[in-house]
Amino acid sequence: MNEPLLHPLLGVDPPQVGDWWLDARLAATPSGVAYTAHSDAGEHAMVVMLSEGASADAAAVDRLAGTVDRMHIDTVLARGGRGQSEGRLGRKYVETPDTPRAPDATPLAPWVALAWDGSPAAVEEAHRILAEVDLSWLPPKGTPSGPDYQLPWVDKVAPGLARPWPLPWPGRSDRAGWLSILISWLIMMLLMALAVLIAILIFQATPPQSPPPPVPTSASASGGGSGSPSPASGSPEPDSASPSPASGSPEPSPGESGGAPSPTTDPRL
């Protein structure tokens, strides 16, 4: 038996749809993408999810729901997303409890998980389901004339919205466990402590700065370079040329005293 051709996942593909972790691409059309996937229990499946454009079209969503309702109950493993909770196989609807919700949030893209046996017939079934959505299996009606008609969302081929929560570890194809979350928190705390330590070392390595020396004034410069400031009273300093009293200087003469001349004493008296 020939194995189907698998293609690697693209950056726009979600890592998880519902409880199924995506492994590879099987088929892609303007209406959606088919993947191979596995669950946490090791069960394999084929997940068909509508594209961004088809998910926004209510008619395309209803066509997918009608196609799924006509399938065998054992073929459909699970279904989810917009407009997939009703119908004959509405019991297969699975709502992820940990997916964040908001009143104005965009609804999740419709998807269905089917039994996967790895045969080319499964790939043909995926093409058939996607053709039911975009009506590419319909033959042209009448004689073609004028511009060709196409669906308004045919150019929006990116996979629809899917929110895995919590987010998986980068590069992993399974759910992030408590050990991975704990390790990521420890690494983040270590980086924060390292940043604080580097900041402390940078501020401690700064050399201390001494205050600038005092600027000498004109009075201190004339005092022989002693550096002592002049008295605050502002009185003039004594003349350095006059001798000190201990040097035995003579008494001032009468002319120099500035007063009346003192009488002289006669030694004969």
Brief descriptors of the model:
269 residues; alpha+beta; six-stranded antiparallel sheet; 6 strands
Can you walk through the features of this model?
The protein has 269 residues and is an alpha+beta fold. The protein has a domain at 16-96 and 107-137 and 155-165: Phosphorylase Kinase, domain 1. Helices cover 25% and strands 13% of the residues. It has six helices and six strands; from the N terminus they run E-E-E-E-H-H-E-E-H-H-H-H. The protein has helices at 52-55, 58-69, 120-134, 178-204, 218-222, 254-257, and strands spanning 16-17, 20-29, 32-38, 44-50, 76-80, 111-115. A six-stranded antiparallel β-sheet has the order 1-2-3-4-6-5. The chain starts with 15 loop residues before the first strand and ends in a 12-residue tail after the last helix.
Please tell me how large the radius of gyration is.
49 Å
- Please state the overall shape, judged from the principal axes of the Cα atoms: elongated
How many beta-strand segments?
Answer: 6
The biggest beta sheet, please? 6 strands, antiparallel
The succession of helices and strands, N to C, reads: EEEEHHEEHHHH
Tell me, what is the CATH class of the domain at 16-96 and 107-137 and 155-165?
Answer: Alpha Beta
The residue-averaged pLDDT reads: 76
Number of alpha- plus pi-helical segments: 6
**What percentage of the residues does DSSP assign to strands (E)?**
5-15%
> CA-to-CA gap between the ends?
165 Å
CATH-defined fold name of the domain at 16-96 and 107-137 and 155-165:
Phosphorylase Kinase, domain 1
Which CATH architecture of the domain at 16-96 and 107-137 and 155-165 is right? 2-Layer Sandwich
State the low-pLDDT regions, or none. Answer: 227-236, 255-259
Spatial sequence of strands, sheet with the most strands: 1-2-3-4-6-5
Class derived from helix and strand content: alpha+beta
Helix content range: 10-25%
